[in-house]
Amino acid sequence: MTAVQISIHSKHFAKNQPTDQQPVIANLDLTLESGEFVCLVGPSGCGKTTLLNIVAGLDEAFQGKITLAQAHTRPTIGYVFQNPRLLPWRSVRENIDLAARTTPEIIDALLLTMNLSGIQNAYPEHLSLGMQRRIAIIRAFAVDPDILLLDEPFVSLDAPTARQVRQLLLQLWQERPHIVLFVTHDLREAITLADRLVFLSSSPMQLLKEIPVTIARNERQDETRVEAFRQQLFSSFPEIASLL
Amino acid sequence: MENKVWKPLFAVFSLLVFFALWEGISLLVDRPILPSPLYVFQVLWRAMLSGELFFHMGVTLLRLFVSFFIAMFIGCAIGILLGRYRRLDFFFDNWLIIFLNIPALVTIILCYVWFGLVESAAILAVVINKVPNVIITIREGTRALDRDLLEMAQCYRFGKVKTFKHVIWPQLHPFVMAAVRSGLALIWKIILVVELLGRSNGMGYQLNLFFQLFDVASILAYSIAFITVIQLLEWLILKPLDKKALRWRR
């Protein structure tokens, strides 16, 4: 089982600029327990994507440490980027297969659930952005990740599709528990999905508040419960209102 | 011009006008200096029947392909390296400028002086002339590689081979095709000079012979054969390759 210990002392942009400039991230400590679903909520431009890139190992220019506690191997990471990042010269199926670490049957099932079975051989640029996003999500699921990073994955999906994909995400997470780090600016979505909400402030990004979501998972379909929790959050912690 | 029948007809018509113009001018001047197109085609036909044309063209084509593939391979490899590593690029940039600006004739002469009038010297001279151009084109392509996709490949642990095959090479493809096209055109021209100066067969050697004999008709006949082969390469190999590689485009 993987637990992730994020400890970033500071992260600056543009290494050729003087280091006394304002850091993007400062003194951020965050622990992700194994099998935990964590939503990062913060204003746009505050550095959430940078944080995900650091966790994914794509950005190594920072002071601090990311500890991925797992016995032997490096954990497998699935990353749904903010833009789909599909290879335009490879078909939908090839895009998924190139990254996949799971069986073809599972990929078939994922494609079926996402209503994409019919377009397996199409090229990404011939498809809508919403479809490309769903393909990118399937690709992340298909690596059977230990850590799943999602950077506002449901933007530009229509509401019914987004709901459906959210359900699929939860279902897969419950079938095989893994850490999910989910960036969103939609507080309702965050409450519906997460075990724990992490509120982040901007410039520099710091951890403002960590709040466990106390609604039972089977009651979260009820929108009034989610809304009530949201209102309660705003009244107990007025400072988070400025983040949204 | 949208019509599928009219377009090729129009192309034929434009060629006919060209030959008519040529015929007209040849009537105005002396026959030996500018023979009529009809006579040139007769000479071409005879050269083909005797097998002479095919032999020399074959020799030249062989040299062309050998030096072309060597130059493309070396050029692509160095171009990718320079595009990826800035320090390396900084160091070799001046070398590149030197090699780009050496006149083709100088490399050819030097190669023959240093290595003798041998086949490998001829090939080397062509390669040295072509490589810097390939490097520059491929270096540009490598600098323009999409970082988002490279990050994706890194995150999903594609590894070096898979990343190159599926992420980098498809992005370089338009640049490689540009290098191939400009390369063929350049090598054709250089290879004739190489043959003229130091080989005893090939098109360049033949052209030199015709020059000494003042045989303009044969020179023109060989040129026509030459242009036709290059166009055939474009239609039969390069165009289909482009079409296949770019079928994913919108």
How would you describe this structure to a colleague?
The complex is a heterodimer of chains A (about 240) and B (about 250). The longest helix of chain A has 17 residues, at about 160-175. Chain A has helices at about 50-55, 90-100, 105-115, 130-140, 160-175, 185-195, 225-235; strands at about 5-10, 25-30, 35-40, 65-70, 75-80, 145-150, 180-185, 195-200, 205-210. The relative contact order of chain A is 0.19. Chain A is globular, with a radius of gyration of 18 Å. Chain A is an alpha/beta fold and about 240 residues long. Chain B is mainly α and about 250 residues long. Chain B has a single domain, classed as MetI-like fold (Orthogonal Bundle), CATH 1.10.3720.10. Chain B has helices at about 5-30, 35-50, 50-85, 85-100, 105-115, 120-145, 145-155, 160-200, 205-215, 215-245. The longest helix of chain B has about 40 residues, at about 160-200. The interface of A and B includes residues 53, 79 and 143 of A.
Give the helix level of chain A as a range of percent: 25-40%
Shape of chain A: globular
CATH superfamily of the domain at 1-12 and 21-76 and 172-239 in chain A: P-loop containing nucleotide triphosphate hydrolases
Give the tally of structural domains of chain B: 1
Q: Please count the helical segments of chain B.
A: 10
Name the beta content range of chain B.
Answer: under 5%
First CA to last CA of chain A: what distance?
Answer: 33 Å
**CATH-defined architecture of the domain at 1-12 and 21-76 and 172-239 in chain A:** 3-Layer(aba) Sandwich
One letter per element, helices H and strands E, the order of chain A comes to EEEHEEHHHEHEHEEH
Q: Taking strands numbered 1, 2, ... along the chain, how are they ordered across the largest sheet of chain A?
A: 5-6-7-3-8-9
The CATH superfamily of chain B is identified as: MetI-like
Largest sheet of chain A: 6 strands, mixed
What's the CATH class label of the domain at 1-12 and 21-76 and 172-239 in chain A?
Alpha Beta
- Most extensive interface between two protein chains, with residue counts: A-B, 22 and 17 residues
Overall 3D shape of chain B? globular
Return Rg of chain A in Å: 18 Å
Overall pLDDT metric of chain A: 87
Determine the N-to-C terminus distance of chain B.
24 Å
User: What is the H-and-E element order of chain B?
Assistant: HHHHHHHHHH
CATH topology of the domain at 1-12 and 21-76 and 172-239 in chain A: Rossmann fold
Structural class of chain A: alpha/beta
